[in-house]
Amino acid sequence: MSNTILDQIGNTPLVEATAINTNPNVKLYLKLEGNNPGGSVKDRPAYNMIKSALERGDIDNNTRLIEATSGNTGIALAMIAGIYGLDMELVMPENATKERVQTMRAYGAKVTLTPVDTGIEGSRDYAEAKVKDEGYVMINQFANDDNWKAHYKTTGPEIWRDTEGKITHFVSSMGTTGTIMGTSTFLKEQNPNIQIIGVQPDDEASIPGIRKWPVAYLPKIFNPKKVDQIIEVTETEARTMTKRLAKEEGVFGGMSSGGATAAALKLIEKLDKGVVVAIICDRGDRYLSSDLFDK
């Protein structure tokens, strides 16, 4: 029987949140994506994007891969690329947490840090220049259909199965938007009445993993018709809920998870009944060198 690390991607736990949910007529479930072997929801698309590209012959062991990332996708790509023996360079802003940089390097990837003031957009510009001028191949999570298809094939079906088809609302932070696009596509096929809620930061917020993209950088895989409602959260709301999740529910996630849960609670306050599922994107231990869990 074959049972590799790749077989451990997906089928993450779905747990009920009981302490923070104050509406007795609504069930709130949290999908713990930090239980993936690479520690985040991004293991799913990283595996599907690399595996599918290899199967199509788009890349091989001589390909120099490059990708801009805010962190979790990079870690997942580093892990998957290492398993397949692929050359991977990851590019991200130099204010990325130390844990993320070290983890990518541990998996064998080259890490390039770009100036903070240009943000992830600057990282994307750097990677695109390497593709144009030096023959690198970009995974391109922002425009790669294998990103959202990973969630269509795995995340959506798991949520449908584990809620026994009773889910009424799905809440997900939006970064590359792969999670919400793929999960929405699957769930809407099962029941068009399921409401898909995207989470974005307000204009003043800086929340790792959640973005409100400038039009020029909007992910090409994003289809606004697949999102029924967008709820904005402040940085304070995301930070506070991240700490509450750890202290009250024993769920140790990052700030994007706190943001998604804060949005879910805003939603729940207005519901008469329902079954709400929110994505906990990753684990909190990759933020310990930041100020997220400071008093």
Folded structure, characterized:
It catalyses: O-acetyl-L-serine + hydrogen sulfide = L-cysteine + acetate. The protein is α/β, with parallel strands linked by helices. It has helices at 43-56, 72-84, 98-106, 119-134, 145-162, 178-190, 235-249, 255-268; strands spanning 14-16, 26-32, 64-68, 87-93, 110-114, 137-138, 169-173, 195-201, 229-233, 274-280. The mean pLDDT is 94.
Main features:
six-stranded mixed sheet, 295 residues, globular, alpha/beta, 8 helices
Topology:
Blueprint: E1 14-16, E2 26-32, H1 43-56, E3 64-68, H2 72-84, E4 87-93, H3 98-106, E5 110-114, H4 119-134, E6 137-138, H5 145-162, E7 169-173, H6 178-190, E8 195-201, E9 229-233, H7 235-249, H8 255-268, E10 274-280
Parallel strand pairs: 2-10, 3-4, 3-6, 4-5, 7-8, 7-10, 8-9
Antiparallel strand pairs: 1-2
Organism: Zhouia spongiae
Cofactor: pyridoxal 5'-phosphate
Family: Belongs to the cysteine synthase/cystathionine beta-synthase family.
Q: What order do the strands of the largest sheet run in, or round the barrel if closed? A: 1-2-10-7-8-9
Largest sheet: 6 strands, mixed
Low-confidence stretches are: none
Strand content: 15-25%
**Secondary structure tally, helices:** 8
| Helix and strand composition category | alpha/beta
The N- and C-terminal alpha carbons lie at a distance of 48 Å
Mean pLDDT: 94
Percent of residues in helices: 25-40%
